[in-house]
Specification:
This protein is α+β, with helices and mostly antiparallel strands and 519 residues long. It folds into 3 domains: 32-119 and 147-195, Immunoglobulin-like; 205-310, 2-Layer Sandwich (Zincin-like); 312-516, Orthogonal Bundle (Neutral Protease, domain 2). 37% of the residues lie in helices and 26% in strands. The protein contains 17 helices and 21 strands. It has helices spanning 2-28, 121-124, 129-133, 150-153, 227-247, 298-301, 303-309, 315-320, 324-341, 347-364, 370-373, 375-381, 386-410, 417-432, 443-450, 456-468, 510-516, and strands at residues 32-38, 45-52, 59-64, 76-82, 86-93, 96-102, 110-117, 140-142, 145-149, 155-157, 167-174, 180-183, 190-191, 199-203, 207-213, 216-222, 255-261, 277-284, 287-294, 484-492, 499-507. The protein has a 6-stranded mixed sheet, with no helix packed on it. The protein has a 5-stranded mixed sheet with strand order 15-16-17-19-18, with helices on one face. Strands 5-6-3-10 form a 4-stranded antiparallel sheet. A hairpin with a 2-residue loop joins strand 18 (277-284) and strand 19 (287-294). Helix 9 (324-341) packs across helix 13. The longest helix has 27 residues, at 2-28. Zinc ion is lined by residues 306, 310, 328, 331.
Length: 519
């Protein structure tokens, strides 16, 4: 008898403990917004059901925040609140649409359903080059084809305490099974902040190719298989492992490259850019989305590599650091560096792309004054100015190349630009993970990192003259690695028609150039 009472007592105590343990667990698991999506494979719209967990709020404000790159279109219709709550109003606030739900019992889950129309206005008519090249910003849903991101259809709860982040899950409850699809989320729950970067793609002709880098899955997705598709695939499969080795960083769950072909304008129209083909893309934290037109040359084929390098050098550096020359130009140099060190490019191809960057900076922008090339002027006048935007790529590239040469010369070749970038990434990681304040990412902190490799007074001077003041680096005077020879050539710019003096490089010896870029 005694033992039975004892056992019952122990059982009760154990049950109480278990109950508290489960309660504790329930409170620490992040609450989740559950989306379920339906698409019949024929129409241009999807049906969205969104279940919002209990958040203890009497009123919910749901905001449809369209992609900042795309012009706003009102795509949500038939908005309904199911369950014990009702919709107070829908209104437009600063180009965003808000739905206000009066949740009469704050302890209830709220179910919201709406229809999202993803018809692509650019599809039917001939559009301008810029619209054609930015198709990846817009949703596109039509018969047997769907291209959609979480940022297009997702709604954000804007009146809650953001200190307790929400999770999001996205399920496709009805889809045409005859189509091939790519879903960047799968069955996982994601952080709410990643909703906007989730990607869904369905098509009859979709090609999804998977490759792994140290067990990290990478996906290349194209909506058409053509020569460009094959070129891009070759570049990303060859160079991506080298990029990750360059930064010595494998801290990623997965990554996707999604490149679609725009057939909205005839390929010959892109000649105004002086190229036979262009790939334009937006880098996301977990992948990139891009559009291409025409036939891609070797440099354009490397654009996906450039975008993937934004995993390490990105808009944070541009905005906080305050300098696009760094975010874009250094990315351009790492692209060329790794494309060459991985043997994707021959020494001749490496030199060709190097010289293209110099033609760009010393050629097309040779008519500008130092003031216009100065960092302050660029910062203040860049809005809507494509020329000033593009100037940063070659300006930063030329500076990175120059810096690489100076680092190699002062260490007798034992250290390179790559060592500096590994230091930079290690410095930046605690900032990205929120352990160190983002304010620490400054030009001053960058100069501190460089001063490990070259004299402090030298880097101060280089940044002042060639970046802040916009002065050209005089390569006739500059010291260069012995692997390069230099000549200064008069070159007619393809856009302005003006003749400018442009530094042109060649290599002294193929093998020693290759060796100098290996790491
Ligand atoms: Zn970029």
């Amino acid at each position: 008898m005694q033992t039975i009472i004892k056992s019952v007592f122990v059982f009760i105590i154990f049950s109480i403990l278990l109950f508290f343990a489960q309660e504790l667990k329930a409170n620490t698991i992040a609450k989740e917004i559950r989306y379920s999506l339906r698409w019949d494979g024929k129409s241009s719209s999807i049906k969205v059901k969104m279940v919002i967990p209990t958040l203890g709020l009497n009123e919910l404000i749901l905001t449809h925040q369209p992609n900042p790159f795309a012009s706003y279109e009102d795509r949500i219709s038939e908005f309904k609140v199911l369950g014990k709550a009702f919709l107070k109003e829908a209104k437009m606030v600063d180009q965003t649409k808000q739905f206000i739900i009066d949740n009469r019992n704050a302890e209830d889950e709220v179910e919201v359903s709406y229809v999202f129309d993803g018809a692509n206005q650019n599809d039917a008519k001939t559009v301008g080059l810029r619209e054609a090249l930015t198709m990846h910003h817009s949703p596109n849903i039509k018969k047997d084809f769907l291209y959609l991101m979480g940022r297009h259809f997702g709604l954000y709860l804007t009146n809650r305490n953001t200190k307790s982040p929400l999770k999001v899950s996205i399920q496709w409850e009805e889809v045409p099974h005859s189509l091939i699809n790519f879903n960047s989320v799968g069955n996982k729950s994601i952080e709410e902040s990643m909703l906007e970067y989730s990607l869904f793609s369905f098509s009859k002709d979709l090609k999804v190719e998977k490759f792994s880098v140290k067990n990290i899955p990478h996906y290349f997705i194209g909506d058409t298989v053509n020569s460009n598709h094959e070129k891009i695939k070759k570049a990303i499969v060859s160079v991506t492992p080298e990029v990750m080795r360059f930064f010595d960083d494998y801290d990623f769950d997965s990554y996707f490259f999604h490149a679609i072909e725009s057939k909205a304008i005839p390929a010959q129209d892109i000649r105004m850019y002086g190229r036979d083909g262009i790939l334009s893309a937006e880098a996301l934290p977990n992948g990139f989305v891009g559009t291409y037109i025409g036939s891609l040359d070797l440099k354009a084929t490397l654009t996906p590599i450039h975008e993937s390098i934004h995993r390490w050098i990105n808009s944070l550096d541009n905005t906080n650091f305050g300098h696009l020359w760094f975010g874009e130009g250094f990315t351009e140099y790492v692209t060329l560096f790794t494309a060459f060190s991985s043997d994707f490019l021959t020494p001749e191809e490496f030199i060709h792309i190097l010289n293209e960057q110099f033609s760009e900076y010393y050629g097309a922008y040779g008519d500008l004054t130092n003031e216009i090339r100065s960092n302050e002027y660029i910062k203040n006048n860049i809005r809507g100015n494509q020329n000033l935007m593009h100037l940063n790529y070659s300006k930063g590239f030329v500076f990175a190349f120059f810096l690489d040469n100076q680092i190699r010369l002062s260490s007798n070749g034992s250290e390179t630009f790559r060592d500096l970038m590994v230091d930079y990434i290690n410095f930046r990681k605690p900032i990205l993970s929120g352990k160190v304040d983002v304010k620490n990412l400054t030009l001053e902190s960058f100069k501190n990192l460089v001063s490990k490799y070259i004299k402090r007074k030298d880097i101060d001077e280089y940044i002042q003259r060639y970046i802040l003041d916009g002065e050209y680096i005089d390569f006739k005077e500059a010291q260069l690695m012995k692997e390069f020879t230099l000549s200064i050539k008069d070159e007619k710019d393809r856009r302005t028609g003006n003749v400018n003096q442009v530094p042109k490089f060649n290599f002294t010896d193929r093998e020693s150039l290759k060796k100098s870029y290996r790491f």
